[in-house]
Amino acid sequence: MKLVKQTKDGWQYQLNPAEADCLRSLLNQFPITASATAKISRTDSDPQIVDREKLLNESLADHREKLKTRARSLIGAGKFKERDKNWRLCINSEERECLFQILNDIRVGSWRALGEPENLEPQTPSPTEREKVFHNIMNLAGYFEHRLLDHEEAENSS
Amino acid sequence: MSSVLEPFTIPKPAIETDTSSDDKLAPTYYVICWNDPVNLMVYVTHVFMKIFGWERQKAEKHMWEVHEKGKSVLVREGAEKAEFYVHQLQNYKLHATMEPAE
Lengths: 158, 102
Known about the structure:
The complex is a heterodimer of chains A (158) and B (102).
Chain A lengths: L1 E5 L4 E5 L1 H13 L18 H29 L3 E4 L2 E6 L1 H21 L15 H29 L1
Antiparallel strand pairs in A: 1-2, 2-4, 3-4
Helix pairs in contact in A: 2-3, 3-4
Chain B lengths: L18 H7 L2 E7 L6 H12 L3 H14 L1 E8 H13 L4 E5 L2
Antiparallel strand pairs in B: 1-2, 1-3
Helix pairs in contact in B: 2-3
């Protein structure tokens, strides 16, 4: 996957068939993991914190539902177009941000499903099938995040 | 009829409630991003630039602080705005909280 064109209206990425299959599969299955309860503070003892935390979790759940809709629309609204045996993904800035959030939700969710390990490599010589699946999904989501941001790193280093 | 003067009392000056001082005393919060091993450094930088409108250099400075020191104070704001930023950061699945500023 690589950026082939960037205009004020949007972004065009080229994906090979395997990448296109993987990305569409991730989008189609989103959300892959159950949502975790989010904390809004580590130290605040204000009684209002309970309400704030409830509001945060409601807001995150609502946002996730919207991301699910966006994930489906990224697959089904002609965003992926076949071209010369490869695929083009054409998205605007807002869709790109949604894609980041979807991919990172998948990545962080998979990491949580693995027990939030400090080391991201499999810890046992023979990981279970479940562990293998979540490791693969976590790495795949990270791969696409990197590819989406590659040009920003390149611009910065040039 | 005697002309006894009524005691004259000086009216007490009205004590105005200075509402602006309430604002000064309103609690403020630090918006903190905490380190974790899963969020990619380039992604964290991107999110900081997007949410706060920072230049890359400033976003990277905070990203490195998160990575090396375990956390970074991103902004200090009133409750409402701090809460808004925490919601935004958590939408991107960054580990962010708001902590009372002393």
